[in-house]
C-alpha cells in the first residue's frame, strides 16, 4: 500500500487478475510500478491481446507483475 507522505497516489487500473498486486476495482496495489518498453519484441497492439491469462511480466508489459 502507499506510504503516507502527503502526496496523492495515482490509481493505476489493471485487469491482470493473476497478479499478486491486483486489487478490487482493477486497481494495482503495488507501491511502485515499472512498465517496460518492449517495442522490438511485439508485432501487435496490446489492445489486441483480449482475455489471455498473464503468467509472467512479459505477458503484461509490466515488470512489477508477480504471479499470485
Quick structural gist:
It is built from no helices and two strands. With 68 residues, it is mostly loops.
Main-sheet strand order equals 1-2
Question: What radius of gyration results from the CA coordinates?
Answer: 13 Å
Largest pleated sheet: 2 strands, antiparallel
DSSP summary: helix tally: 0
Let me know the number of strands. Answer: 2
Overall helicity: under 10%
Q: Return residue spans where pLDDT drops below 50 for at least 5 consecutive residues.
A: none
Mean pLDDT, all residues:
74
- Beta percentage is 5-15%
Assembly annotation: single chain
H/E order of the elements? EE
Q: Any idea what the shape is? A: globular
Distance between the termini: 17 Å
Structural class: little secondary structure
Total count of domains: 1
Please tell me about this protein's structure:
Helices cover 0% and strands 6% of the residues. The chain is built from no helices and two strands.
Protein traits:
68 residues, two-stranded antiparallel sheet, single chain, globular, little secondary structure, 0% helix
What is the fold's blueprint, element by element?
Elements: E1 22-23, E2 27-28
Antiparallel strand pairs: 1-2
Amino acid at each position: 500500500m502507499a506510504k503516507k507522505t502527503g502526496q496523492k497516489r495515482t490509481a493505476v487500473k489493471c485487469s491482470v487478475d493473476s497478479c499478486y498486486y491486483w486489487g478490487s476495482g482493477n486497481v494495482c496495489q503495488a507501491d511502485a510500478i515499472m512498465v517496460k518498453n518492449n517495442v522490438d519484441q511485439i508485432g501487435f497492439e496490446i489492445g489486441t491481446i483480449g482475455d489471455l491469462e498473464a503468467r509472467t511480466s512479459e505477458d503484461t508489459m509490466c515488470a512489477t507483475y508477480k504471479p499470485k
